[in-house]
Amino acid sequence: MPSIDKLVRLHKSLMTLSRGAGFIEYPRISKLKRITRACAEQLGASRVSVWKLSEDNQEIVCEVLYILETDHYFKGAELKRADFPEYFNAMSEDRIINADNAITDPRTSEFTEPYLIPNGIASMLDAPIYAAGKLHGVVCLEQVGDARVWDLAELSYVASLADSISMINEHENWLTDREQLEFLEQYDSLTGLERRNNFQKRLEFDLQGELDPDRTRVLMLLGLDFFASINDNHGNKTADSLLIALARLLEFVTQPYHCRLARVGGDLFGIWLPDLKNTEQLDLLNNKLKTITDNPIKTEDDTLVSVSFSTGVVIYPTESSGQVNPMRCAEIALQRAKSESRGNVQYFSLEWLEQLQSKRSLENELIAALDNSELVAHYQPILSTKNEKIIGLEALVRWQHPTRGLIPPGQFLPTAKKLGLMERLGSYMLKQAAGGIKRLHDKGSSIAWVSVNISSEQLYNSQLSQQIEDILNEFDLLPEALELEIVEELISQDSALVRAQLAALSELGIRLAIDDFGTGYSSLSRLKHMPVTKLKVDKSFVDGLPHSEDDCCITQSIIGLAKGLEIELVAEGVETKLQAEYLTKANCEFVQGFYYAKPMPLSDLLMIDQKS
Ligand code: C2E
Ligand code: MG
Ligand code: MG
After folding, report:
1. Fold for domain 186-348?
2. What is the architecture of the domain spanning 360-611?
3. Do the beta carbons of residue 513 and residue 486 sit within 8 Å?
4. Is the CB of 162 under 6 A from ligand 1?
5. Residues at Cβ < 5 Å from ligand 2 ion
6. Mean pLDDT throughout 584-593?
7. What is the best residue among 429, 453, 540 to mutate for testing ligand 1's pocket, by most ligand atoms within 8 Å of CB?
8. Structural domain spans, the chain
């Protein structure tokens, strides 16, 4: 019976060693040395060794051998399966080999001549070691001199010892996996170049350090032009191979410089020069970089691809040092470079950043403006030339900005378009206008209708006519009270959807006006077949009246056309008495312009209307 005390003592000593603070962090060889020595000392075993099985399972190599008597370590001995098949078979059975008499034990007897006798070994005790669930090696205890009967406490101890080494193996595997993972995180698997995160960390770190006043730092961002088309035209494989070829060329060109090169995005390469003597060096590098694109690049599959780079450059120290993320500055410069012409180089300027920031804040404010009812409708009168009485209104959107005052539509409609707000804005304005004309009617005004500008987004929304019908019902209005203005350009596209939409609206009894008439290219024959009730002559023709012969001629033709088609006509942008007189004489029915009245809030209009 093994002594329980012995068992506990042995296990405790092993635990103290292998779970001790910092043990797992030692290099593998130190861990193995400590373990083998502790084992030899605890059990009084003459020789304790750790062996590693080769990948092909055909040999074991001694990682460390500790000899108690001399207190020395050895390593490197090799044993081949071919020479010791019985031992290897026993080892493969994954069990402890407790050969009290190693010379007679069939599992170890084949060691007698070459190993046991020369080393004076009488007994052996081997336990299997694992890694990632597979046999990885053995821990081997050898007793020199008299044979030794290993008791159960000792067997249990050696099994635990082998487990501790297995744990070390698991830990090391985990570390290797982690390192590989970290490598993959840090380096681009396609080109082998550093990836964005690492690159960015490095340049942020460098930027915090002191810089000699006569030195400079430069960040360059190279964007491959038209990479999407290269992908489409040549396929992903060629495009990937092109990126690899480019990475090698960039490495070659930047090699003489003290710099870091990275692939910071799909078609983006970063070059960080943390310590440049002067900007001439930068010019030199730029020239060398240009040579990369002088000739088509040959990819692995022998395709020749012509490429060009646009480049954004940030030179440090800049006005923005410390304030703005350096990559962001380089991206802004690159965007500028791309927007001008491809193959261009642009140097970052803080002014661009400020413009972008104000654009961004305008975008955010505009989204909130719709929720906060900061968008308001102003109304511009449309008058009859016969009696100069207001017969209708055009509703025009304005942004009543809390700090910037009244902003005209030209300054925010493009942003609203970009943000996809045009439908919301459009239905908001339809309701405002419907509410406005309803109030005027309720006050007994003779102003009959209000016209509302309709965006392409609204026109392409199949719900538009239903929405208009709902609004008419909500405000209890007749369809004649509402007119929709559609720019000529939209009509000239002749889309089936637009035609269907216009037909549905006209069926509702809604009147349709073509805005900015004369600027688009609508065919007259098409116009004849459209349910259009009004043309609005664009201001650009009215401007030249009555002096420009061309404008007079065009205006006369449009007036003639409207009469011929029996549709109404409004001249927009009438600013002077002469223009007004000319149009009246020319029999233009309706006019709209600053000469008569500017767009105004409903409250002002109510006052004017009541006075007249
Ligand atoms: P538009 O529909 O052609 O509107 C006429 C524009 O000419 C208005 O500019 C009006 O203020 C201006 N105008 C009128 N008479 C004169 C004049 O005698 N002299 C000068 N210099 N200008 C005159 P506004 O309000 O700045 O609107 C510009 C454009 O914005 C509009 O042109 C229209 O295309 C668009 N817009 C305005 N409100 C809305 C809306 O609610 N929805 C949509 N989708 N577009 C709108
Ligand atoms: Mg209009
Ligand atoms: Mg117009």
Report:
1. Alpha-Beta Plaits (3.30.70)
2. Alpha-Beta Barrel (3.20)
3. yes
4. no
5. 453, 485, 515
6. 96
7. 453
8. 4-183, 186-348, 360-611
- Residue 454 alpha carbon to ligand 2 centre in Å: 8
DSSP secondary structure letter of residue 209: S
Between CA 481 and CA 347 the distance in angstroms is: 56
* Residue 373 identity (one-letter amino acid): S
Q: Look at 179-183, 275-279, 472-476 and tell me which has the smallest mean pLDDT.
A: 179-183
CA distance 306 to 484: 50
The single residue listed with the structure tokens 């942004």 is 399
Query: pLDDT tens digits for 367-414?
Result: 999 889 999 999 999 999 999 999 999 999 999 999 989 999 999 999
Q: How many CB atoms lie within 10 A of CB 406?
A: 11
Q: What atom of ligand 1 comes closest to residue 377's alpha carbon?
A: 41
Measure Cα distances from 279 to 1, 194, 256 in Å.
Answer: 84, 25, 16
For 272, the token pair is 């960080």
Domain topology for 4-183: Beta-Lactamase (3.30.450)
Q: What share of the chain is helix, strand, coil (3-state, %, to 5)?
A: 45, 25, 30
* Residue nearest atom 17 of ligand 1, based on CA coordinates: 573
User: pTM, whole model, 2 decimals?
Assistant: 0.60
Mutate to test the pocket of ligand 1, among 374, 396, 425, 464 (most ligand atoms within 8 A of CB): 396
CA-to-CA dists, residue 299 to 100, 264, 384, 463, angstroms: 67, 21, 71, 52
> What is the arithmetic mean of pLDDT over 345-360?
86
Ligand 2 centre and the CA of 452: distance in Å? 7
